[in-house]
Amino acid sequence: MSQPAPQSAAPAMDQARVDQARVVEAGFDEAWFAARAQPGVQRLKAYDPGHDLVALRRRYGEANLVELGSNENPYGPSPAARAAILDSLHALHRYPDPLGGDLKRALARKHGVDVKQILLGNGSHELLMQLGQVFAGSGQEVVFSRYGFAVFALATQAAGAAMRIVDALPREAAMPCGHDLDAIAAAVSADTKLVYIANPNNPTGTWFGRDALVAFLDKIPPQVIVVMDEAYAEMAEAPDYASALSVLDRYPNVAVTRTFSKAYGLAGLRVGYLIAQAGLIAVMDRLRESFNVNGPALAACEAALGDEEHLRWACARNAEQRAALSDALNARGLRAFPSQTNFVLAEFGARTPQVEAALVERGVILRPMGGYGLADCIRISVGSPDENRRLLAALDEVLA
């Protein structure tokens, strides 16, 4: 018996080629790929660094550029950290310690915690993102304050969770645009998995004290993880300020992130750390990228921890210049928000975009705040005495 002739696959193949040709003709652009991304990623906007600093350095020359937009430590790291980096260069062909054991042990001694309570990250940014990935997802909520650190929103959206943004304190408050802790606590619902809080806060510079911290944590259900981002804690000198590290034993749902980028002057190495209950750290470790902190960074951070004198010196200089810069801004009819960080948020009013652009033309780089919803403000990093003088001289020209 004769068999029926097999049906040709040519028409289907031809249609596939046509479809492919259409895609190629349309172009594999950002929109094409975005349509194929996870829903949470589709809603994201890339982190905005403010300015192309490399291009500006080439334009003005590093010696002529006043970089006061990224909250860096103008005094640099401890000499011991520099020496440790150089000493580590002979081992660049080796992978770094995947556990970061020596640095973890040094951190454990400093903060009086167990090594198992510490997780290292490629900056605290990585850790904040991972906390969202691990503990939040679709159909769940993450609560944080308006004008909180930009990474809180990025982490929430990347995880596919819903953002519940709580209005900040009014500008007339003692801590203008700071966290309204009562409102944040009231916003926590049965769907809330994470609460992100920065203390002191970026970009406002505002803070709250121990009594307010304890009163807030007492209102949060134990199943909700509270992430306290303390990137600027070392520079806070207000008598009422207290790190959440002091209450970890009382509130096991609290996790604290810190960084070596600010007070320790090691922003170029990108090292942060998380301190929390050992069980939380163990779960987080499942997502940690292998060798996520490089060898020279591990060595430098351990050495920096051992040089308390340099840290105290740098923080004291920052406090002096922060006060002087705030006074100078206020004297010029501007409004400098209270700050316990190494930056000052200043209110310039309707002329803000023009002032910021004019300063860039004079080689002074600050951080515009439109992306934070503070379009009439500029965040100014506290520089060295010379940098601050150059900033104020340029500002006087612009405001004249």
TrEMBL record:
Name the pathway: Amino-acid biosynthesis; L-histidine biosynthesis; L-histidine from 5-phospho-alpha-D-ribose 1-diphosphate: step 7/9
Q: Which reaction does it catalyse?
A: L-histidinol phosphate + 2-oxoglutarate = 3-(imidazol-4-yl)-2-oxopropyl phosphate + L-glutamate
The catalytic activity of this protein is classed by the Enzyme Commission as: 2.6.1.9
State if Ion transport is listed as a keyword: no
Enumerate the CDD domains for this protein: AAT_like
Q: Which SUPFAM superfamilies match?
A: PLP-dependent transferases
Q: Which residues carry this modification: N6-(pyridoxal phosphate)lysine?
A: K262
Entries under Pfam families matching the protein: Aminotran_1_2 (PF00155)
UniProt entry keywords in alphabetical sequence? Amino-acid biosynthesis, Aminotransferase, Histidine biosynthesis, Pyridoxal phosphate, Transferase
Q: Cite the record's note on assembly.
A: Homodimer.
Q: Please identify the protein, giving its name as recorded.
A: Histidinol-phosphate aminotransferase
Please tell me the species this chain comes from: Lysobacter firmicutimachus
